[in-house]
Design a protein that fits this description.
Layout lengths: L3 E6 L2 H23 L2 E5 L3 H11 L12 E5 L1 E3 L9 H8 L25 H15 L13 E5 L23 E4 L9 E4 L1 H4 L4 E6 L5 H7 L18 E7 L17
Parallel strand pairs: 1-9, 2-3, 2-5, 5-8, 8-9
Antiparallel strand pairs: 4-7, 6-7
The structure holds 6-phosphogluconic acid (6PG).
């Protein structure tokens, strides 16, 4: 697993623009070397800010949108089309304005879908979809995602894995139903840490003063049960994309030499 690297930007707008440019380049590179790309999206303001920045970037036309698989790190278990669903927000921010192959947009099930209100069944179905997309040489239950995006919560949660909650202790399953989430809505579906760690690159996004303690804790040696973000690492790269406010309580020894 990779050691976290930090990039600190002046503010959350610049962070979103820079992360958008970085993600576009990553997708174009993956498509050039492997023919297609796979990206795991996150819910939350920072993840949506990144998608909005891609939508507004002329470089978005460098991506072949028909050759990308989109997955989700977590979903709020609500009816199809609910404005609070992560997929609904991602569609509004970017997905409805680019020519994606609908078969390659792997939204997590909704609470009025084939599994009804059974979040465990929805999680199991998503786990099967991931396993089917994993090529045998991966020897893994999930595909080798090129980039997996995660917003970081003020309590250090990532996806729907909350400190001390059962989900963060899951070691077998790749996808779980989450009940009693401290962040509304209470029922969610989430990738687990082992699934997250099978990504080539994990990028964590945090902006604002209210994230400063979480960022400092996750990067200062806290365990993943207390600080789930600490356990979110990519196989070849773990990148924390921050603004100065979110980085403001990092120990000086961790603060990167250059920031913009
Ligand atoms: O469904 C969700 O709410 C998320 O996926 C969640 O993990 C989010 O990414 C963080 O809470 C950060 O959210 P912000 O970027 O809005 O702070």
């Amino acid at each position: 697993m990779s050691t976290p690297q930090l990039v600190v930007h002046r503010d959350k707008e610049l962070m979103a623009e820079a992360a958008a440019a970085r993600l576009i380049t990553k997708i174009v590179d993956a498509q050039a070397s492997r023919g297609s790309a796979s990206v795991v999206l996150t819910g939350g303001r920072n993840g949506n800010g990144l998608l909005t920045a891609i939508a507004g970037s002329p470089a978005r036309d460098a991506v072949d949108w028909s050759r990308i698989d989109l997955w989700w790190g977590d979903e709020r278990f609500l009816p199809e089309g609910d404005p609070e669903r992560n997929v609904t927000q991602a569609r509004e921010a970017l997905l409805d304005s680019v020519p994606l192959d609908p078969k390659r947009v792997h939204a997590m099930p909704a609470s009025d879908g084939p599994h009804g209100s059974d979040a465990e069944a929805a999680a199991a179905a998503y786990a099967r979809e991931l396993a089917e997309a994993s090529v045998p040489e991966n020897h893994a239950a999930v595909p080798s995602f090129d980039v997996l995006l995660l917003g970081v919560g003020p309590d250090t949660h990532v996806a729907s894995l909350f400190p001390e909650h059962p989900g963060v202790r899951e070691t077998d399953r790749t996808v779980i139903g989450v009940h009693g989430s401290p962040k509304p809505p209470p029922t969610r579906v989430s990738l687990t840490l082992p699934a997250i760690r099978s990504a080539r690159e994990v990028w964590l996004l945090a902006a604002g003063e209210d994230k400063a303690n979480a960022v400092a804790m996750a990067l200062s040696g806290a365990g993943e049960i207390q600080a789930p973000a600490a356990g979110a690492r990519g196989r070849s790269r773990t990148l924390w994309l921050l603004d100065t406010a979110a980085a403001s309580r990092l120990p000086r020894s961790l603060y990167p030499p250059a920031s913009a």
